[in-house]
Amino acid sequence: MKVLLGIVVAIVTLKWWPDIPEISTMVVACFIVLVVLLALRKHVSVFFIGLTLGCLVASSSAALFKYKTISALTVAQNTTIAGKVGSLFTAEKQQTSVIFDVDTVNGRKLTNFETFRVRLYWRSDDPLKQGQRWEITARLREPYGRLNEAGFDAETYFLSRHIHAKGSVLTAKIIDDTASYRQRLFEKVQIELSDLPSSRYLVALAFGERSLLQRADWTQLRDTGLAHLLAISGLHIGLAFFFGDRVTRIILPLIHRHDKGLWLPALVGLLCALGYAWMAGFTMTAQRALIALATFSLIRQTGFSVSPFNTFLIVLSVVLVADPLSIFSASFWLSFGAVFVLCVMSLIGEKREDREEIGDIHEGNNDSAIEALWTSLTRYFRLLWRMQCFLTLGMLPFMWAWFGGVSVTAIIYNLFAVPLISLVTVPLILLALLLSPFMSATWLWAAADLSLFPLLFSLETFASGWLDIGRISWLWLVVFILFVVLAATLNVKRSSLLLSVVFIVLFTWGNGAKQSADWRVEVLDVGHGLAVLVEKDGEAILYDTGAAWESGSIAESVVHPVLQSRGSELTGLILSHRDNDHAGGSEWVVTELAPQWVRSSENNPAFLSCQRGERWRWKELYFDVLYPRMLADEARNPDSCVIRVTDGVNTVLLTGDLPDEGEAYLVEQNDDLNAQVLIVPHHGSKTSSSALFIDHVDPSVAIASTGRYTPWNLPNPEVVARYKERNIAWYETGKHGQVSVYFSNKGWRVLSHRLDLEPYWYRKMFGRPKRKE
Description:
- With 773 residues, the protein is an alpha/beta fold.
- 50% of the residues lie in helices and 16% in strands.
- The chain contains 28 helices and 25 strands.
């Protein structure tokens, strides 16, 4: 088992490795290391051998992904590629985000090592269907995305799902319009589900297609802790296996009474799980679940007695060896985290179960059939209650790390939802999917819909219970979990005394931390737009909100998660001007984050004014408004609110989209513009950042909020050169991600999310800039 532990440790640490060699080098390294290990197997630690093997597996997988990514990006722009559509499409909504598996470039068939997967922005007049073969001209880019300390990380998402490039379709011609069988079955089932109230949930459970679920649905599922039940996951693949296994065990004795063929139920279960995974499109989650089930079944069929923890370690190592990039997926950590928690529960509960069984033997088995049934049900729900308690507690660190909160009502909801979905809804869906190819299964779909009625009723009526724990230190979470574990396993008095000491230390440490005089400025990576946070003592002022669109906003997807991860409250909001890329999320911020005040350079009776001469103090920081001279009815670029923020020693200049005319005015007024940090005006546009203005500010660092591959091609190269000629450190969010500036009595420093917080090989894979020494 030490070998497996070494493999797991090596693969899990993949993300923090400093570099990954080329794939050709890896082949030679693998051969040499294997020879050395075989020669020294009697003198080398078994754990070290596993660690070495794990490193070889992890680095090979990362090198292969990097090789495919580079191959995809070496395809000349506007070159013809061909392949199959991998996405499943609904009749109600044709998606514009399409997964496309490329196997041909300029008529040349690619080898298995050269084929790659891309996500394309594709608007087609013809309905796209999974399985169709197209020849397209596309503009491909590396799989980049916005990179902040919190919020959705698109690049990690692409990596975990083996998507090697992203791009947009210029022209497209269909080669083979034959849709996949899964797409045809999906369209048939959709017709049967069209009039059912829970059709969107049934589609998610049957096909893993979640595009029909609305934002409100996901919020309700999150608040009640039921998201894992109403989208195909490892749990549902396991239920399919359980369904096939149990049904076969019931039917097999009726056909054949001999002991031969005891392996058949497990085989049928695996086939059912395989079919369900295929129906879900063989997502990475489904593939991991299949591998885990196959490994578990093999262990059980061998007849060896293997402890729950050893079984967990074997399954985990097999899954990681099969796909080392799983460690970049949140679903991987949530799935195996839940399994690990259940292993702990089984370990703690073994002695208790043994005592109950001994007690039953001493008491005798004289219960009637009804009493026996009642006893079985009582034990089942008691076990279910314990399982939910352990999962809620044990998954707390994972939920905090990935979502910044936890559902406190998940225990209650899951207590009735798990049996309902597991024993009723999923079996009905499986039967409906089996019968749908041959006959109408409308009655089965109606029964499945009816089974979800109490669940949907509770979601719409009583959906609540989400607790935001982003403001709680992870140390407090660890202490809380340790307290419960020690209380369950050790003497209560001893655990209470130990935890009391730890609580006192943490409380003292927490009070000391609040007295810090430090403050920070965060220029968030929001694409083309601007959102800057000024933070101090757990509170923040937001300067601009970034853009908004029909289905969301930067404020919701980036600003709010960052504030949650910090545990910071939003005190104030400043809007430089009304353009969407700067103030698009203002309505959402005002409604959802409820700042105490809002300032704007626009005539608005609901807001405080932001015009020249305004000055206020906030937490020992001084805010001086230098521009505009007067408020506007509709504030645009020339009306941008320019603010100087200082603690008396360190200064930051916020400029919005100030054009060169406004810069000239500030220089003429001989204002004190000197600042260590300058937020570059107008994203580095050539109509801003005049030489005179830069010299007057004389910054040490210039930070431009830019988008990557935008139509505006910002920042302008001449502007960038203007700053670098003056030896001003240049940062831009489109290349460097979120940029953080920390100020204290000891000085100040700048960190970028890409350059300072990512391993070199990860930056190299996605074309990150290199730091100049």
